[in-house]
Write a structure and sequence with these properties.
Layout: H1 2-28, E1 32-33, E2 38-39, H2 42-52, H3 55-70, H4 83-87, H5 91-95, H6 97-115, H7 124-153, H8 157-169, H9 177-185, H10 190-214
Antiparallel strand pairs: 1-2
Helix pairs in contact: 1-2, 1-3, 2-3, 2-6, 2-10, 3-6, 6-7, 7-9, 7-10, 8-9
Length: 219
């Protein structure tokens, strides 16, 4: 019986890994282009992978998503696909997804273990803690996104013009080009990523965990 339950759990995790990777691609299509970097709901998929899946499966899920894109499947924002997406100015964000999902998974499971509770039983205070974890987990994505976009932008007048215009519009213009780049490529996205995408991921993961527990699978 124990062996059967372990096999069932593995099958569920593989199915969830693929399902979350596809969901991330669908969430990418909920986007708004105000420049070369789109506002999307992709971070919800990344955080959801970390919440629902053990570390190796969260890594698997986000890696599958990148493989799908590299193979040309239109799962990046704007129904784009191909290696050019991963190697372009915004590719750093995508390449950070597996690291962020892995960190979210590790931190979530450590916290739940210390609290001696399951994801299905989290309360408001736990949601607040998981939101903080999501911010820390997404830092590698921000760092890689900033680094890659900066590499391209410093040699591209068009991209730098967009950065300057963006920071000027929101009243945060500065003479430091790196600070401009940080504001335009990282700071402006944090509120949505945390208080919308991550919060929704936590809510959805709690109900998904309850449903899976009802079916005899604990995540």
């Amino acid at each position: 019986m124990i062996a059967f339950q372990k096999d069932l759990s593995s099958v569920v995790h593989y199915v969830l890994s693929i399902g979350v990777s596809i969901l991330t691609g669908l969430l990418a299509q909920l986007h708004l282009y105000l420049g070369p970097i789109p506002y999307t709901m992709q971070c919800m998929g990344v955080v959801l992978a970390g919440l629902l899946l053990p570390p190796k499966y969260s890594l698997l899920s986000t890696t599958i998503y990148l493989v799908f894109i590299s193979l040309g499947l239109p799962l990046a924002a704007g129904f784009r696909g191909g290696l050019a997406v991963l190697l372009g100015p915004t590719g750093g964000y995508l390449l950070g997804f597996p690291i962020s999902a892995l960190l979210m998974s590790f931190s979530t499971r450590l916290y739940l273990r210390l609290r001696k509770m399951s994801l299905a039983d989290i309360k408001s205070v736990d949601t607040a803690v998981l939101l903080c974890f999501s911010f820390l987990a997404l830092l590698p994505m921000y760092i890689l996104g900033f680094a890659v976009f900066t590499y391209y932008a410093l040699g591209d007048q068009r991209l730098m013009q967009w950065v300057t215009t963006s920071t000027s519009i929101i009243g945060l213009d500065t003479s430091d080009p790196l600070m401009k780049l940080f504001i335009a490529t990282v700071a402006v996205f944090i509120p949505q990523d945390i208080f919308m995408d991550s919060l929704l991921a936590i809510v959805v993961s709690r109900y998904a965990a309850r449903l899976l527990r009802f079916r005899g699978v604990v995540v």
